[in-house]
Amino acid sequence: VQMEVGPVATEFEQEEISFTLAKCQRYFEKTYDQGTAVATATATGSIQFRGGNGDTAAGYTQTPLRYAVAKRATPTVAFYDTAGTSGHWTSAGGVSGARNIAASSSYSTGFTVNMGETFDQVNGHFTADAEL
Questions:
Q1: Do 35 and 89 form a contact (C-beta atoms < 8 A)?
Q2: How far, in Å, CA of 79 to CA of 61, rounded?
Q3: Do the Cβ atoms of 105 and 62 come closer than 8 Å?
Q4: Are residues 91 and 118 in contact, defined by beta-carbon separation less than 8 angstroms?
Q5: Best exposed site among 5, 50, 85, 96 by fewest CB in 10 Å?
């Protein structure tokens, strides 16, 4: 459906799906595959970190991430492990880990992941919500 302003209809505009997706991602982005609901138990599309980079001596790790598309405002970020549990990521061996995961230094183009424990390998999903 295409809405028009005024009495004259114009040619129907067809956009590439990548262009439409990028416009939508200004408001919401997820690492889950397209068509997969948030909090679904899956590793497909998850992001993975290897090695305890950052200040591991202090017992935490920091890693910067960039969004696929800059958001319209600073979004609210949520995390999910590969089992679909909110606020956790999955550590090596499939165990839910990084229990103190949080976003800091959040801005419209990315954020820093803070994990309250060191790790060898961890993966999971995030969502970034900047809706009106």
A1: no
A2: 15
A3: no
A4: no
A5: 5
Question: Which helix (H) or strand (E) covers residue 111, if one does?
Answer: strand 110-115
Would you say the pTM of this structure is higher than 0.90? no
Residue among 96, 95, 71, 74 at smallest CA distance from 86: 96
Spatial contact of 44 and 36, defined as CB atoms under 8 Å apart: yes
* Residue 54: how many other CB atoms lie within 10 Å: 17
Over residues 88-126, the pLDDT tens digits come to 888 766 666 655 678 888 899 999 988 766 666 788 899
Q: Per-residue pLDDT tens for 15-33?
A: 999 999 999 999 999 999 9
DSSP 8-class letter at 55: -
Where do we find the tokens 């919401």?
28
Report phi then psi at 20, rounded to 5: -65, -45
CB–CB of 45/125 below 8 Å?
yes
Q: Where are the beta strands (DSSP E) in 25-91?
A: 28-30, 47-50, 61-66, 76-80, 89-91
